[in-house]
Amino acid sequence: MRLNVKVWRQEGPTSKGRFEEHQIDGVEPQLSVLELLDALNEQLIDSGQEPVAFESDCREGICGACGVTVDGDVHGPEDNVPSCHQRLIHYSDGSTIRIEPLRAGAFPVLRDLIVDRGGLDDVIRAGGHVAVNAGTAPDADDLPIPTLVAEESLDFAACIGCGACVAACPNGSAHLFTGAKLTHLSLLPIPAQERNRRAKSMIAEADELFGPCSLYGECEQACPAGIPLTAIAAVNHERFLAGMRRRL
């Protein structure tokens, strides 16, 4: 089939962006959004034009680097699916597909479809790590963790930091991302020793760089890792606990 592709082009962070429209023939419905961009770039290179800059890495749905906005939907029309797994079965011959970067004030466009998601890294640097000096590696059974607790922690650790939650939120909030990291580490015995410090520093960083929660839950719908909305509740929960511990 033939698709009309409207793709965002922007030479740099300070340049004025625009949409370019191209026609691509021979598109198969099972192709992904990224494979469509590959086909577009081959066509542009063959005609002596500059290819579209976009990010991708594993193309297996586990890294989150591929995030773009497709027809106004973060990652694409299917919920909880990364861009590299969004298929073109939703389009028919002659349809138009609009591809642009993740749209959020905290994600400035670097070039074409590539945005700077460094704000998420800043939140992690603020406290999303374990700095407890545990000495030599303990035996595996020294700190028993109940199976259900370990599984819940791993569920929140599944966040891939793609930024879909921020782009989907009208306020550009990173509460789902921040809450996932806080919950993951608070459930484990060694990381929990820094729970108070971690909550204060990570939440303060997120509040400075990102907007407040919109309370509508768009983030959960866009998240390719399936992080639940309870991660958002964890932000205020951890904030409250950190404040209470400071008073005691």
Structure notes:
- By secondary structure, the chain is of the alpha+beta class.
- The chain folds into 2 domains: 109 residues, Ubiquitin-like (UB roll); 131 residues, Orthogonal Bundle (Fumarate Reductase Iron-sulfur Protein, Chain B, domain 2).
- 36% of the residues lie in helices and 11% in strands.
- It has 8 helices and 7 strands, in the order ββαβββββααααααα.
- The protein has a 5-stranded mixed beta sheet with strand order 2-1-5-3-4. It has a two-stranded antiparallel ribbon with strand order 6-7.
- Strand 6 and strand 7 form a beta hairpin.
- Helix 5 packs antiparallel against helix 6, helix 5 packs across helix 8 and helix 6 crosses helix 8.
- The longest helix is centred in the last third of the chain and has 18 residues.
